[in-house]
Amino acid sequence: EIVVPYAAKQLRAIANQITKKERRVTFKEGTVYMRGRDGSVMRVGLYLPDREAYQDVTIFRFNADGLRERIDAKSANWGKDERWHFNDVRTLDLKAGKLTKTPELALSGIDSPRIFQEEAWKVEELSVMELNSYKNRLQDAGFKNIKLLVDISSRVAYPIINLFMLLLGISLSVGSDQHLLQRIYQLRAFQNVESHGGVVSAGIGLLISLIYWFGYSFFLSLGYAGTLPPAVSPWIVPVAFSLLTAHLFRNIPE
Questions:
Q1: Cα–Cα nearest to 133, from 46, 6, 208
Q2: How far is it, in rounded angstroms, from Cα 194 to Cα 180?
Q3: For the purposes of burial, counting CB atoms within 10 Å of the CB of 195, is it exposed (0-12), middle (13-18) or buried (19 or more)?
Q4: How far apart are CA 236 and CA 250, in angstroms?
């Protein structure tokens, strides 16, 4: 919640510095700031990644003397002509002191929305509180982002499994289910490996980890697709492993 988002942001900053890539997009709780190729600054008050929708948009355009023009639009979309199209537009010319209103306005010189998808939406750089705040903003605007709901649940569910995997390893290593381990060692593939029991145990541990990871990723995908409730899909595998761990831990011989 604290270290990982900060470290992820620093990691991307270092990567951009090494690759000489300038970051022109800033994302915070659904609000996006982007600097265009012409030096203008575009602010999207509410960005909806799954719908590629942009609401409450403001464009600040500059010249050598400073801020020249401010454009406010209710919404925007990227057209087939490779330009931004703004709807319900108000344009304030600061030099002339004139305010004009137009139903639609097309502008070029600002990057395509692909840069939003590449740079703005990085879940690992956001804390759970920031994700939850973004979710509330979307709900207030009448939108529902399923992927965001799944990500919030997974950020809470994923770290918890560390405790149960630790207890699972302890349970197996001290022989909470000797019959299970004996059946595994009696398999033909494990015969004559008494001197390599540690390697076999490590292999079993790796297998358990892979089963958990693939199962977790599978149910997470079902949540993203809307097949399972977003708040439930990230918890299925952690809960199943937790129940297994609780059973094995209780059966540890005294």
A1: 46
A2: 17
A3: exposed
A4: 21
Secondary element (H or E) of residue 201: helix 197-225
How far from the centroid of its chain's Cα atoms is residue 181's Cα? 39
Q: Cα-flanking dihedrals φ and ψ of residue 143, to 5°?
A: -120, 155
Give the three-class secondary structure for 73: strand
Distance CA 151, CA 141 (A): 20
Separation between Cα atoms, residue 198 and residue 111, nearest integer Å: 56
d(CA 47, CA 33) in angstroms, rounded, equals: 10
Q: How many residues does the chain have?
A: 254
Phi, psi of 231 (to 5 degrees): -80, -10
Strands 41-48 and 66-78: unpaired
The one-digit pLDDT tens for each residue of the chain (254 residues) are 888 888 888 888 788 788 776 666 676 666 778 877 777 888 888 877 666 778 888 989 888 778 888 999 998 888 888 888 888 999 988 888 888 888 988 887 777 776 665 555 667 777 888 888 878 877 776 667 788 888 888 888 888 878 877 887 777 776 555 555 556 556 555 555 555 556 666 777 788 888 888 999 999 999 988 889 988 999 999 888 888 888 877 877 76
Per-residue H/E/C for 123-186: HHHCCHHHHHHHHHHHHHCCCCCHHHHHHHHHHHHHHHHHHHHHHHHHHHHCCCCHHHHHHHHC
Q: How many other CB atoms are found less than 10 A from the CB of residue 47? A: 24
Q: CB neighbours (10 Å) of residue 64?
A: 5
Site of tokens 């207030």: 140
